[in-house]
Amino acid sequence: MPKTPERSAIVGWGSITPIGSDPWSTWQAAVAGRSGIRALTESWSFDLPTRIAGRVPDTIFTKLEPILRRRSDRCTQLALLAARQAWAMALKRTPGVDPDRVAVVIGTGIGGLSTMHEQHMQLSDGGPSSVNPLTVPMLIPDAPAGQVAIDLEIHGGVHTPVSACASGAEAMMLAQMLLNDDRADLVLAGGAEAPINRLGLVGFSAMRALSSRNNAPEQASRPYSSNRDGFVLSEGAGILALTRDSDAPAGAALGWQLAGGISSDGHHIVAPEPQGIQASRAVEDALRRADVDPADLCAIQAHATGTNLGDLAEARALKLSLGVVVEHLPVYAPKGQLGHLLGAAGSVEAILGIQSLREGIVPQSINANPLDTEINLDVTASGPVKLSSSEPERLMLKNAFGFGGHNVSLVLAAPCNIAEQRD
Questions:
Q1: CB 239 within 8 A of CB 86
Q2: What is the rounded (10 degree) CA torsion for 10, 15, 18, 20?
Q3: How far apart are CA 364 and CA 346, in angstroms?
Q4: In the chain, what are the domains?
Q5: Which one of the listed residues 75, 165, 298, 406 is annotated catalytic?
Q6: Quick check: is 416 catalytic?
Q7: 298 carries an active-site annotation
Q8: DSSP reduced 3-state for 46
Q9: pTM of the model
């Protein structure tokens, strides 16, 4: 039997998303049902088959020092902004943390794609001498984690899971493993992604993964809808500060990560195993390790990207692993609002999940109507759903799946009747 880990207390968080510049504003926008998907207006996008995306305002990067903006990719900059928010909150809630016992685990699906694209253009137009000497350290996938450790002067280890769209959730699972193995006392974990450029959009469009609703951006991301036609590419970052629950001061925990489960499809490099068999193993692994019965859950936060195959495979996986219980659990698909943040999706959405549990509200899954008749789930398509307060804690299942057959499921928990705090 899998060993039940000590739960990890979440004592801080930070996020930069298409609908908010921090976790609080992102949550408010989620509850209000706002979309972060917009039409692209840059000239480089005019001839692309997909001209919509979820972007963060360029003005937010002015919070970073000019030298960091010059020497780091947009992906790293997003990670730095989110990590500073999480670190500031964590220091308030768990003062006296030894920097030598703080680790960083920040995943990404691609890394410095903007740098790669820009410097290739420089090479093509101006020759070798025009290429930025910092090209490699700007584009490597571990740059966000490394730069966060440098920026915050922490020394407990730097790790970078590159697991496509499951990267942020896998980072959270690895954080719990580091804590339970006593390799760190606090871990900053999550993901970052900045794929909105000509190369990123062309690449995903060529494989027919993206929605092409260019004339209706806010309706383009349609998880679980019968007329979904692909996901919408987005950028952002989400970082959580985790510590062992036994080390967290009383009242410091915003919520908890009980356990994580993982499996691999072993099926196809981009298509999911269609029956959801291996994805269901990740769900069951997480529940076993958390010592949680499906009936203990009060909600599900789905991966649900809006692709025909992926949404259906996840619905089948949930039915396999949860049985009849799944028919009565509200299912929230946040990508209808956020778009798909790739490597940042798991952690950004996990923050929303904890906020949902704390507030007792599962937001609406916008654009899900009309529901696909093959999706036999209680999707929150018609509006937010209030959760019961009959137990001291609420529990949620959170899924994150990625190209290559990466399947990660997390069991999250939070106390009931706790008003959201803006630290």
A1: yes
A2: 90
A3: 18
A4: 8-415 (3.40.47.10)
A5: 165
A6: no
A7: no
A8: coil
A9: 0.97
Q: What is the DSSP string of 233-253?
A: BB-EEEEEEEEEGGGSPTT--
Sign of the CA dihedral with 357 first, then 360, 366, and 371 last: positive
The single residue of 75, 117, 298, 303 carrying the catalytic annotation is 303
Of 73, 240, 94, nearest in space to 147 by CA: 73
CA proximity to 87, closest of 73, 108, 102, 75: 102
Active site residue: 75, 117, 298, 340, which one? 340
> Cβ(268)–Cβ(402) under 8 Å?
no
pLDDT (tens, 9 = 90+) of the chain, 423 residues, equals 677 889 999 999 999 999 999 999 999 999 999 999 999 999 999 999 999 999 999 999 999 999 999 999 999 999 999 999 999 999 999 999 999 999 999 999 999 999 999 999 999 999 999 999 999 999 999 999 999 999 999 999 999 999 999 999 999 999 999 999 999 999 999 999 999 999 999 999 999 999 999 999 999 999 999 999 999 999 999 999 999 999 999 999 999 999 999 999 999 999 999 999 999 999 999 999 999 999 999 999 999 999 999 999 999 999 999 999 999 999 999 999 999 999 999 999 999 999 999 999 999 999 999 999 999 999 999 999 999 887 789 999 999 999 999 999 999 999 986 654 555
